[in-house]
Amino acid sequence: MSQPAEGIRRWSVRAGISLVRVGIPDFDVEPAVGPRSWAVVLGVVSVLAGVLAVIGWPLPVVSGRYTQDPLAWELTVGAVEDWLAHDGWRMSGTSWVHGAVAVAALAGAVVLLRPAWSGVRKAVVVVVPAGLLLVLGPAVQWALGLPWSNYEDRSTGAMALGILVAVTVGVGAAVIAAAVRRGRPDDVDAPFGGRRRP
To answer: What pLDDT sits at residue 144?
Structure first.
C-alpha cells in the first residue's frame, strides 16, 4: 500500500473512533421551532384578534358540510361592505367572538411557557375564560335587548343560541374524547412506552 493511501486509511479510522466517543447526546440541539416561538405566534394572533374585536369586524358566513349556503361568499362580502359604509363607530356582537379568540390565544401563549403545569390546569386556563366570554357576552347582549350589530341586520337571539350550541357541542366532544383516552389501559412494558396490542 502506498504511503498516501495508508495515511488516508489511518485518518479515517481515527475519525470514526472520535465519532463513536462523542456519542449522540453531544449532537443534541434545541429545536428550531420551540415553545417560545409558538408563544410569540399566539401572541401575534391575540393582538390581531383583539383589534378585530375593538373595531367590530364582521364574521365570515361559513357554508358548512350539512348547511350548504350558495350565497355564503356574497353575504360575507356584503357584511364587509356594510361595515365600510357605516358612518360612526361599528358595534357588533362579533366582538365577543374575536375577543374570545384573543383571550384563548393569549392564554395558550402563557401555557406554552409553563411546561410544569398539568394538562387539566392548562385546559382550564385556555378554555374557561374564552368560553365564558364567548357564551355570556352574546347572552347578556340579547338579554338587554341590544341589536346584534349597528351596521348589519342579524338576530341577536339566533346568534347567541348558535354560539351556545356550538360551544356546548365542542366542549362535550372534548370531554368524551378525554374520557375515552383515559379509559384505554396503558402497558408500561410495551416497547417505546406505547400501548401493547392485544
So the answer is: 92
Pairwise CA distance, residues 172 & 138, whole Å: 20
C-alpha cell at 71: 350565497
CB 167 within 8 A of CB 135: yes
Neighbours of 188 (CB within 10 A): 6
pLDDT in tens, 133-171: 999 999 999 999 999 998 887 778 888 888 888 888 888
Q: In this structure, are residues 102 and 46 in contact, taking their beta carbons and an 8 Å threshold?
A: yes
Distance CA 149, CA 188 (A): 56
Residue 127 CA: distances (Å) to CA of 10, 83, 96, 99, 187: 62, 30, 14, 13, 31
> pLDDT band at residue 75, thresholds of 50, 70 and 90?
confident
* End-to-end Cα spacing for the chain: 59
pTM over 0.85: no
Q: 149 pairs with which residues across the strands?
A: 92
Q: Is 113 helix (H, G, I), strand (E, B) or coil?
A: coil
Tell me if residue 104 falls in helix, strand or coil. Answer: helix
Residue type, 97: V
Q: How far is CA 146 from CA 64, 91, 103, 143, in A?
A: 28, 10, 24, 8
Question: Rounded distance, CA 42 to CA 109, Å?
Answer: 6
- State how far the Cα of 164 lies from the Cα of 170, in Å rounded to an integer: 10
